[in-house]
Amino acid sequence: MSMTSSVSQRDGSRISDGVSSLPKPLVLVVEDEAALATMLRYNLEKQGFRVEEAADGQEALTRIAETQPDLVLLDWMLPVMSGIEVCRQIRRRSATRDLPVIMVTARTEDQDAVRALNTGADDYITKPFNMEALLARMRALLRRSNAVPVKGQLVFHDIAMDLAAHRVTRNDRRIHLGPTEFRLLEFFMQHPRRVFSREELLDAVWGPDIHVEPRTVDVHIRRLRKSINGEGELDVVRTVRTAGYALDTEPL
Ligand code: CA
Question: Do 172 and 238 have their domain in common?
Fold first, then answer.
């Protein structure tokens, strides 16, 4: 019997009040070659990732909005919409601006690599590629975006969450949070720098079946801020006018 009460997330990860199982990072594989997509899924799942697939550029954008992946492996040559255009769109939208993207290209010319990076891809890899090399790049990117918890720890800037011990610290100072603020912070720390609307936060933190006023989110954000921002410390909760909130160290 489970000792913890938990709330199922839309993305399949779980937020719980007690011992938390680590969410596996979700990778969206955008690839029109079915054999390559299957090979990638097999290898990534073996390495502890969750995998979603899209076979063309338009589907990629839809799946990103639906599943909120932690990283996108994006093929360059795609039907309907090219990988370059998909990447542009990802960067244009505030919710996905900081989503890690690795371009996968059959092209070998340096100019194309430069073009991929100019479009906003974080990294690129040329086909045929070595799986180990790809995994190393993916892990490096995920570490940078703080999406991978290390041994039950979530870290963002100077804030650390120990999910198993249910402990939050900032600059090694212990921080006490109410259960809702704890879940809010946990959700934010799983998706740093991403902007979430009040409705999205209600869905993710309170659950889709719970009907509360969107204004309730503001109340808990205020409490969270008061608890985690100490004297002279940076406010890490960013308010994005009309859009919502994000965990971020950058000013507007
Ligand atoms: Ca292709």
Answer: yes
- What is the rounded CA–CA span in Å between residue 41 and residue 22? 20
Ligand 1: centre distance to CA 77 (Å): 4
As a whole number of angstroms, the distance between CA 3 and CA 65 comes to 33
Low-confidence ranges of the chain (pLDDT < 70): 1-22, 107-111, 146-151, 251-252
Q: How far is the CA of 189 from the centre of ligand 1 (A)?
A: 33
Q: Do both 123 and 211 map to the same domain?
A: no
206 and 136 within one domain: no
pLDDT in tens, 27-63: 999 999 999 999 999 999 998 899 999 999 999 999 9
pTM, two decimals, is 0.53
Ligand 1 centroid, distance to 141 Cα (angstroms) = 23
**What whole-number distance in Å separates Cα of residue 190 and Cα of residue 43?**
23
Residues, CB-to-ion distance under 5 Å, ligand 1: 32, 75, 77
Residue 252 belongs to some domain of the structure? no
Ligand 1 center from residue 31 Cα (angstroms): 6
The whole-angstrom distance between residue 110's C-alpha and the CA centroid of its chain comes to 29
